[in-house]
């Protein structure tokens, strides 16, 4: 049975359904590439930030195989991937600091002070002569547009009101793997302006740490394939879709349906989770023990489920995304023969579903 998971762990598991990068593995394109330099004006939601000539590869093309001067690689995900020059050695000095990048767009601007994780899959090309040990993702408030084909000096961008955040990936010894894909991964805290992303080597030739590993005659460069880029929110909980969970701290006074103050923190976190995952709906279930009249237990369970729902709606949740039900004492999770067991049966639950 295939299970769908929403992952919200602090450091090592993440929700794959919430990738904020548009066209993250370059599957959407206008025409099948049949030559070099066919990334720009072709791959949907992606562009080039300078005059470099980044490449696009797709299994629809014969160019992917023996015609590729950089060597062969299978896509890491799907059918498409990109390729960029991150260092170029030119003996005649006619292409000093030549660089290629790829620039994409996010589905939404990142939320200020929220933690995200970025993952980028790379593979050094078979015929690369050099490997380097530092690449970077630059997140910006607007697209970069340089009239040069040299490296982008991110500190000297002259666009009005330009703002950026740089996420560095530095690896010792070097990013040298050719026979498979490796994942660059790092967490960062958003500043609240990030809408575009740009990936490549933002160092000059002089500041690029490189290692010569091969002696191919041409081209004399460091060249990497790129695939499956993701930026996803990091949060504190793990939830499985279609599974019912019991609130741990949603509390009420005896025979009352007003939320106690201790309930707010857990509900606020759940609301934030729902805001970050707009494709989710939630259902709230109220339950009681078997003490008292059945009619009153049914009424009380409905009122408590409604109180939770109304709180989430008051925070800003669209009412169309939430439903609530009360079951009284009809759905116990244990017997009602002790006070401890009755306390377990007095509960409010929730379940998350995809729209």
UniProtKB/TrEMBL annotation:
Record's signal peptide: 1-17
Highest taxon above the source species: Bacteria
Main localization (coarse): membrane
Record's GO cellular component terms: cell outer membrane
Cell compartments where the protein resides: Cell outer membrane
Key words of the record: Cell outer membrane, Membrane, Signal
OmpA-like domain residues: 239-355
Matches recorded under PROSITE patterns: OMPA_2
Protein name (Swiss-Prot/TrEMBL): OmpA-like domain-containing protein
